């Protein structure tokens, strides 16, 4: 197997802003990449170009040494040795579960015992051996999803694509399926690309997360790195529930800011230092605590979430901040908060 | 190179195939017709035909009968649609199915059955002693008679169009109006009526175009009284074949096409500004209660149904059982001789049966082979290309059958280029014209089923490694099989008894069922014509019943009389 690389990939549908704009990305062999972004950001178009359902209008897609698509050549999806789990599962209603799973083998001319053995193995890996002779219509949503997964598993594809596969499932089933996906990835060792707009899903599943917005790739990295050190305002506001403050900061100061430098920046100064520049600073609510030595803020809303209260505060200069509190706080009350940590975007 | 260089799922032969089919079945014949029409106007001496009073009389007759026919069809079809869709009438399902029958019964059979019901020689009236005295005129041999039968024949078209609008009315909209304090009557006039106006207008336009192109009714009711509409004028010009015939009939067909298009333009004009996108929950609107009126309304509907369907059909059966036209039917005179005659003795009717069954099944199968690839192309291409392709496929069906027949006569009068064979006068020209005229009948159910298919089903098969033909056979065809079946049955149903196309194209040995009925009546064998009509009606009802039985398993929109 080999790594999948997208080089300066673009796609535009007629006039207007291109759906995908000059996107370059390399997915290491056996990696599990989540493409994360708001709806309409072009992530599904990227997935469909990798599958071969859309032709790029610029750039190229390679799998190892093999060119899947560029200006001169295009390999149709039939010949790409990929598999995909669709949002709607795309099970063929006129075939049984076993026939659905075995179809890619049938097309490849594999028949008889070899096929039925592989189908049985694939169904066993998603714990659906007993359902082989049922029709998809007789299965529940989660079972259909697992049949779709088994169909991907059966041919040992180079790349497995997943297009918002959990969007149609309820919350309880999602957690179960996330576990199935992780296991599937571990077992198959295939390169996986997973499209979602749900960040907790992306964080929980993937080894790498790529953030897209308006057709552009903003940041790629391990989930922890993206969460801790997002690049730029857009990623900062997409990941986690942080608030972004505009604060006067020395450009030479480190990007991770502690309470000392933050409290400095938050205190109004008559004569700002000439080197100070206004910068965007991301403050996560778990880094904000109610403390007497903190700065003053007014409680705008207080929402009981069960284990804690989620607060929306305004600082004296009108900027908004999020915080958590274990004790009830009244709306309109003046509190003092200490910000333990901030990240310069 | 289409398939190599794009993510397009279409094989590279598909586009040329679609272009070729549409060219042969739509562009070429209609282009030829337009060309001959223009040429004979400009160069040939055919422009005198435009000065003939008989032509303008025919135009007037066509317009006046079509307009009144449309009014009648709107009245009958409209009230049935309202009452059967919105109100709690007893036996709605049965009434709705029966109401569709006139649409599928061939027009010449409708005309024959009504003649059998009225007038001095009516077997039915004689049997109950109510016939007018001999020598009094047959009231249906008149413009009024033609208009009345147009109205009856086309009422189902209005019913269908209006019913579709009625069913798409948002239920929550009606409920909101009721909560705002509107009485049922106010809901009807303030909410429902404005919302279904587009459906009513569309239904009226379809009915008008269908009237303009109708041949069977004016042929049987008009020609004996020397009342000509444009379609029957084309027929009579063609019967008295002369040097100027081709030019004349192409101009006449052009006029028919212009009238049809005018009707559609008026429709578009009236629909402008009425594009109500219906939002929200649509569904069977909560039935209005008729209360005390429920029984009387039910009885009234059944009476109308009896007048437009049962009595004419009863008269038809009576005429077919009488020993000769005008002889009273009693228990003693009842005879099945007419059936014996047409089934066992008359070679002509046997040939007609064979021809029609052969032509309609061949046309249905050939069209299926064309429709499936064309449908794939339409659904998988961009919106603009799809609109163009389906438009080209629809035109020959929207135009009256007689126009299509003339177009193919002009196209195939001489030997075909390259092969040097003349198909004029053979079954093949009729088959070709059927394929052109009924392409859209065949295409529509397949397209509406294919559109409802999740595209990812095919994409999953592509990733599984299946090529185009393989996907077609393994995935798409099994999923579309019900719609394909419906498409075949529909084309068969319509082609097996049609008259308008074959009336001009038949010759000795290639007559169809429709032609045979018309010729039998024309030569005075009314009882034989009736017997043959009864058989055709039985066949139509049987085929429709089959479709009705399987309709619940078919995708939405596949069976045209179910919305």
From TrEMBL, chain A:
Family indicated by similarity: Belongs to the ABC transporter superfamily.
InterPro entries: AAA+_ATPase, ABC_SmlMolc_Importer, ABC_transporter-like_ATP-bd, ABC_transporter-like_CS, Mo/tungstate-bd_C_term_dom, P-loop_NTPase, Transp-assoc_OB_typ2
PROSITE patterns reported for this sequence: ABC_TRANSPORTER_1, ABC_TRANSPORTER_2
Pfam families in UniProt: ABC_tran, TOBE_2
Keyword field contains S-adenosyl-L-methionine: no
Span of domain ABC transporter: 4-239
Keywords of this entry: ATP-binding, Nucleotide-binding, Transport
Protein name (Swiss-Prot/TrEMBL): ABC transporter ATP-binding protein
Keyword Transport among UniProt keywords: yes
Organism of derivation: Rhizobium oryzicola
MF-aspect GO terms: ATP binding
Automatic annotation (TrEMBL), chain B:
UniProt domain ABC transmembrane type-1: residue ranges: 59-267, 353-547
Topological type in the membrane: Multi-pass membrane protein
Transmembrane segments: 12-35, 55-87, 94-115, 140-162, 187-209, 246-266, 299-322, 357-379, 399-419, 426-447, 475-494, 526-547
Subcellular location: Cell inner membrane; Cell membrane
InterPro entries in the cross-refs: MetI-like (IPR000515), MetI-like_sf (IPR035906)
Protein keywords: Cell inner membrane, Cell membrane, Membrane, Transmembrane, Transmembrane helix, Transport
Family label: Belongs to the binding-protein-dependent transport system permease family.
UniProt protein name: Iron ABC transporter permease
Organism: Rhizobium oryzicola
């Amino acid at each position: 197997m080999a790594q999948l690389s997208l080089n300066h990939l673009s796609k535009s549908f007629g006039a207007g802003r291109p759906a995908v704009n000059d996107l370059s990305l390399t997915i290491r062999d056996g990696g599990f990449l989540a493409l994360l972004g708001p709806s309409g950001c072009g992530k599904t178009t990227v997935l469909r170009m990798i599958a071969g359902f859309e032709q790029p209008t610029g750039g190229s897609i390679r799998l190892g040494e093999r060119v899947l698509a560029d200006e001169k050549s295009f390999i149709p999806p039939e010949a790409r040795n990929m598999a995909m789990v669709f949002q709607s599962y795309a099970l063929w209603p006129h075939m049984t579960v076993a026939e659905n799973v075995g179809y890619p083998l049938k097309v490849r001319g594999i028949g008889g015992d070899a096929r039925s053995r592989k189908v049985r193995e694939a169904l066993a890996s998603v714990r659906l051996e007993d359902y082989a002779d049922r029709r998809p219509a007789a299965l529940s949503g989660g079972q259909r999803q697992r049949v779709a997964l088994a169909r991907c598993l059966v041919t040992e594809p180079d790349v497995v694509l997943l297009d918002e596969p959990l969007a149609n499932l309820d919350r309880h089933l999602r957690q179960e399926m996330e576990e199935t996906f992780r296991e599937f990835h571990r077992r198959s060792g295939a390169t996986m690309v997973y499209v979602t707009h749900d960040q907790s899903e992306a964080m929980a599943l993937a080894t790498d997360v790529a953030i897209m917005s308006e057709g552009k790739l903003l940041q790629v990295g391990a989930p922890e790195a993206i969460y801790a050190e997002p690049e730029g305002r857009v990623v900062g506001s997409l990941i986690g529930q942080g608030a972004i403050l505009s604060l006067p900061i020395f450009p030479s100061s480190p990007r991770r800011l502690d309470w000392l430098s933050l409290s400095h920046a938050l205190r109004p100064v008559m004569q700002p230092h000439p080197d100070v520049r206004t910068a965007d600073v991301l403050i996560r609510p778990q880094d904000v605590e109610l403390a007497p030595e903190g700065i003053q803020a007014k409680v705008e809303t207080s929402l009981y979430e069960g284990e804690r209260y989620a607060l929306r505060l305004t600082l004296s200069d009108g900027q908004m901040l999020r915080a958590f509190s274990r004790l009830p706080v009244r709306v309109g009350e003046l509190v003092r908060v200490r910000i333990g940590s901030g990240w310069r975007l | 190179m289409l398939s190599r260089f794009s993510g397009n799922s279409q094989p590279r032969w598909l586009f040329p195939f679609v272009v070729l089919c549409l060219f042969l079945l739509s562009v070429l014949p209609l282009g030829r017709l337009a060309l001959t029409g223009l040429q004979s106007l400009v160069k040939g001496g055919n422009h005198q035909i435009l000065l003939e009073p008989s032509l303008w009389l025919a135009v007037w007759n066509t317009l006046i009968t079509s307009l009144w026919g449309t009014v009648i069809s709107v009245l009958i079809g409209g009230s049935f649609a309202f009452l059967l869709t919105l109100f709690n009438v007893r036996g709605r399902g049965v009434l709705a199915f029966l109401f569709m029958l006139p649409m599928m019964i061939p027009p010449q059979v409708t005309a024959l059955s009504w003649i059998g019901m009225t007038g001095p020689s009516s077997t039915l009236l004689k049997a109950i002693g109510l016939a007018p005295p001999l020598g009094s005129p047959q009231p249906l041999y008149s413009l009024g008679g033609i208009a009345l039968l147009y109205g009856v024949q086309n009422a189902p078209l209005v019913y269908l169009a209006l019913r579709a609008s009625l069913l798409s009315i948002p239920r929550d909209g009606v409920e909101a109006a009721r909560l705002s304090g509107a009485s049922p009557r106010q809901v009807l006039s303030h909410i429902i009526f404005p919302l279904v106006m587009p459906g009513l207008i569309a239904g009226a336009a379809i009915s008008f175009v269908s009237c303009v192109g109708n041949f069977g009714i004016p042929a049987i009711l008009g020609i004996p009284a020397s009342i000509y509409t444009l379609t029957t004028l084309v027929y009579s010009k063609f019967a008295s074949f002369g040097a100027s015939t081709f030019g004349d009939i192409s101009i006449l067909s052009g006029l028919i096409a212009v009238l049809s298009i005018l009707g559609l333009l008026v429709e578009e004009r009236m629909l402008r500004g009425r594009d109500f996108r219906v939002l929200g929950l649509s569904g069977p609107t909560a039935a209005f209660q008729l209360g005390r009126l429920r029984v009387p309304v039910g009885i009234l509907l059944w009476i109308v149904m009896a007048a437009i369907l049962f009595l004419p059909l009863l008269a038809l059966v009576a005429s077919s059982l009488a020993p000769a036209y005008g002889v009273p039917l009693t228990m003693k005179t009842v005879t099945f001789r007419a059936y014996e005659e047409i089934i066992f003795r008359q070679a002509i009717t046997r040939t007609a049966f064979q021809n029609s069954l052969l032509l309609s099944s061949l046309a249905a199968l050939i069209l299926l082979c064309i429709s499936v690839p064309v449908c794939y192309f339409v659904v998988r291409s961009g919106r603009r290309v799809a609109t163009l392709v389906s438009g080209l496929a629809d035109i020959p069906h929207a135009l009256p059958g007689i126009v299509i027949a003339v177009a193919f006569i002009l196209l195939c009068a001489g030997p075909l280029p390259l092969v040097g064979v003349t198909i004029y006068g053979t079954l093949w020209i009729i088959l070709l014209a059927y394929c052109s005229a009924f392409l859209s009948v065949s295409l529509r159910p397949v397209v509406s089923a294919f559109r409802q298919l999740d595209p990812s089903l095919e994409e999953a098969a592509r990733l599984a490694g299946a090529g185009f033909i393989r996907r077609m056979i393994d995935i798409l065809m099994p999923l579309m099989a019900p719609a394909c079946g419906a498409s075949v049955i529909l084309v068969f149903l319509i082609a097996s008894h049609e008259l308008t196309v074959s009336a001009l194209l038949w010759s000795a040995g290639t007559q169809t069922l429709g032609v045979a009925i018309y010729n039998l009546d024309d030569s005075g064998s009314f009882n034989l014509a009736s017997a043959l009509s009864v058989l055709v009606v039985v066949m139509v009802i049987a085929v429709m019943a089959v479709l009705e039985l399987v309709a619940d398993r078919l995708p939405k929109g596949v069976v045209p009389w179910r919305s």
